[in-house]
Amino acid sequence: xxxxxxxxxxxxxxxxxxxxxxxxxxxxxxxxxxxxxxxxxxxxxxxxxxxxxxxxxxxxxxxxxxxxxxxxxxxxxxxxxxxxxxxxxxxxxxxxxxxxxxxxxxxxxxxxxxxxxxxxxxxxxxxxxxxxxxxxxxxxxxxxxxxxxxxxxxxxxxxxxxxxxxxxxxxxxxxxxxxxxxxxxxxxxxxxxxxxxxxxxxxxxxxxxxxxxxxxxxxxxxxxxxxxxxxxxxxxxxxxxxxxxxxxxxxxxxxxxxxxxxxxxxxxxxxxxxxxxxxxxxxxxxxxxxxxxxxxxxxxxxxxxxxxxxxxxxxxxxxxxxxxxxxxxxxxxxxxxxxxxxxxxxxxxxxxxxxxxxxxxxxxxxxxxxxxxxxxxxx
Length: 379
What we know:
By secondary structure, this protein is mainly beta. It has four domains: 17-103, Immunoglobulin-like (Sandwich); 110-194, Immunoglobulins (Immunoglobulin-like); 196-281, Immunoglobulins (Immunoglobulin-like, Sandwich), CATH 2.60.40; 288-378, Immunoglobulins (Immunoglobulin-like, Sandwich). The chain is 6% helix and 46% strand. The chain is rod-shaped, with a radius of gyration of 46 Å.
């Protein structure tokens, strides 16, 4: 008897439990889409209810009855801030409360450069971010100058970094959502690109002599079409030029030494160039005249050669005298060829000249050439 009563009591309790479970609906879930920790004015956000029952959105002390179990807020404002939950039709069961916070201030993107100088032949990484929030895609912009229009160099990239290899003014902008909500532009960041400078002698002469005028040039690879500011380091001077050329009139031994240059332009710069070693010889060079033969055959000619040992870039003047006591006659002026053909006997010498103004060598030693006549040699 007691055993039967115990069984009946158990069945009654189990039936009551099933009845209660059938009457109490499952607890709904409230979801904020998108699930960003920070929402800004004018963004679009949706409060969505999930559960098997007919659900309504409950906002603090206000019942919202949309036609679907979601509540879409277009162009959110601060007044939309607050706690939201989802409740069954009978309001007997509600979800946990989710809090929506809408900020009235429009966020500003932040652009960071890993370096402000792009090394020669290299690149620099830029990073764009929006503090305290997520879900952004980024647009990237570059300007050639403060007054030029911006060029978009990257659009809607999910990556928050970009690699650049050109100097300029850069900024970025974040965007998210549909329709897209954009941040304020980041503050601009100036990036300079490093290119190479080199000092070159205007004329690639292997030897420079005292009294010559020379020009050194600062050549910048990849700097064509830009306006540059130049700096020089040079021996024995406190006031080197600020232009691309370093002109030295009447060079002397004291000008010997190392010369370096560097330049800067809008978003371009160089390091100091490698040293150019200038060596100035104190002695004035002498031309050397050589005759291929000292006798001109009858009806023929002889070739004379003029040279300046150990140096280049010379043009030659040629002179002839009828005798040791007569005046010299110039028979060739400023010839690039180092040879000349003669058919008259006489005393010959030559002289080299180069540069602007012309720097002249010492005259060569004279060479006597005789002309062969009929049965005799004529001077």
